[in-house]
Amino acid sequence: MKKIITLFILVANILACSVTLAAPIKNIEILGLNVISRGTVLSYLPIEKGDNYNNQVSRQIIRALYKTNFFKDIEVSQETQILKIKLTENPHIKYIEVINYSNKVIQEKSLNQILKTRGLSQGKIFNKRQLDKLITQLKAVYTSKGYYDVIIAKTIKIDTQNRVGIELNISEGKVAKISSMKITGNHIFDENELLNLFEIGQADFFVINYFTEKDHYSKVALDAGIESMKSFYINAGYLDFKINEVKTDLSEDKQSISINLQISEGIEYKIGTIQFTGDLLNNSIEYLRKLLSFKKGDVFERKKMMQSLQAINDIFSNQGYAFSDVKVATLENTSAHTINLSIDIAPNKKVYINRITIVGNTRTQDEVIRREINIHEGSLYSNTELNESIEKIKRLGFFSDVKMQVSKLEGFKDKINLHFSVEEIQTGIFSIGLSHSNSTGASLNLGVQERNFLGTGNTLNLSLSNSKAARDISFYFSDPYFTQDRHSISYGVFSKKLDASELKLDEYKIDENGFSLGYSVPITKKIRIGADLRASKRDINCGTTLSDDHEPIQCASEDETELKLGLNWSNNTLNDFNFPTKGQKNSLNFSLALPVADFRYYKLDASHKSYYPLKNDLILSFKGNLGFAQGYDDKELPFFKRYYGGGSSSVRGFDFNSLGIKYIGSDKVKGGELSFLTSASVISPIKFIDDNKNMRISAFVDLGSISEKASGFDLYELRLSIGVAFSWLTPIGPLGFYAAKPLIKKSGDKIKTFDFTLGTSF
Fold this sequence. Notes:
It is a single chain. The chain is of the alpha+beta class. It has 6 domains: 2-89, Ubiquitin-like (UB roll), CATH 3.10.20; 92-171, membrane protein fhac (Ubiquitin-like (UB roll)), CATH 3.10.20; 177-264, Ubiquitin-like (UB roll) (Roll); 270-346, Ubiquitin-like (UB roll); 352-424, Roll (Ubiquitin-like (UB roll)), CATH 3.10.20; 428-758, Porin. It contains 14 helices and 35 strands. Strands 18-19-20-21-22-23-24-25-26-27-28-30-31-32-33-35 form a 16-stranded antiparallel β-sheet. It has a 3-stranded mixed β-sheet with strand order 2-5-4, covered by helices on one side. Strands 6-8-7 form a 3-stranded mixed β-sheet, with helices on one face. β18 and β19 form a beta hairpin. The longest helix is centred in the first third of the chain and has 20 residues, at 2-21. The protein is globular, with a radius of gyration of 38 Å. The protein starts with a helix and ends with a strand.
């Protein structure tokens, strides 16, 4: 009994003490604040005025405030029912600088995002743990890129206002280079073919490797290559393909690394049975089978399967079933090594266009864009028509970017809205002042050149230019939608004076005045044919050398008038006007100086451009021009109508108009009746510049020649050059630079290894 009484008294005393300690809080004092506000601290406290205070509450307060990471020291006490919280703030970041890092490893934009995520930016509270985590993260980035010797030194300075300055000095060291890279276990595909799937590997020829840096190790690139190899095997039907081991051996000095990939190819799978399920609508199974790029017994290739499913989906979406669903179920037969396919089709509902909206066009009229859209409000949805519409808008050359979004109309399952977003570029130039051209030299200009006049889509060129080489007064107008059927009309008048000696040609002057009229019609969505008529009168004055020695017959002629009929055909499937990435543009032009006037000659000109996407945003481009011209009715081709070559629009690396046969005893080129020009380029965005969508760089090979006679093509006259070029779509038009080195040249050729152009792009 005594023990029970003693225990009761003890518990009573503890409860009495507890009641004494748990006195209500009448006021809260917060001391030591410098940057953080009183309200911010109060918002984190687990108590408020009127609550009871005890040791447990004190611990809760300290724990809650430490969690904020705002403070490095916290003291809590109570005096006469006043809760006192004494705080020592963590310093705030005055600045943080990361220096001596290269964009090849980490770009500034990515670095700023990492700093923001870690809360390490100006004005934020300094957290040492987050700084240490940042350093660890940066080291991991460098290691993944092959920089195993990276050292990141930190310097922290705290000023009298409790602000911290942080400097991270990165010593990158050298990237580990791949000494060897091998793949073993392959029997079906050649090792070199597999190694070409990787961006990294053993060094290329040293000149090429200087630019590609192929031997620079990167775990990111290695992993990407492994995934490419997996896709390669699976797409080839080897579904059991495995990477057994990835072995990387780093040298002791961390300067070189060897890579060995051990793989198991497995067995090739072939297509088994193919069946169609679901709602085929009015499409027969035989018709749908023809859309497949494979049949039973063919090697199973996933890429072909996906392309075939898209082709089937397009059939339904082009009939208005915008949200049709085409799925394939695969059943693997491991014993027969076949894949059975079950293609299920769910068309869902037909969808109609409710509304088409266009945004971003501040100058271009809505109608100019709408007339390029193949479907209209109220019509059935068509995926193919919309894709073609986007390409047509891009081919206008008025916009740097064109996007389309589809949104469902609330409350209607069969209606959608289309939203086109465009980003306009400068399409016109009003010029007054001086300019420079590498063909005509310095000139005084006054004029308007506008491909989108007043936002109507029409072209207006009105110019007055005067230089040593040429004086040009001209007016030209073109309406590409003269009729609703996309018939186009163009007309213009001109007055030109030319001093050929300033163009590095022989000495003659031409004073020409005339007018032109053209008309074209569409044959298909991408093919046009047209005709134009050009009438002019020329006054030709030959220099002494030209009239006496070089062209005595033509210079003695009194021919003045010309009436020229032109017929043209064009086919354009490019996906963009300024920087296309795929498609072709072909044209054929025939012009005949009609016998009703003085001059008698004809010209046939063919041109070709094509673009093919490669890996890593690279584009392969081919260009070619073939020109053929002759006189008729016992008259020669006028010497001023001959072809000339060399310069930015021809074979770069050679001086402007410098190619071809020269007059005997002269350094002046004679020109020719046959022109052959071709070029191949690999084009790339400039990845080390953030805003690079209007810039491109390319490596090119140019080949061409000018033959004096159309029937006398001479391989000896071929010229070849290689080089690099840069193109920038500036607010005043495309600006280009190139540096070229002739590889095939002849004695007497005039070389020009660097030049710039305004108004042309790749």
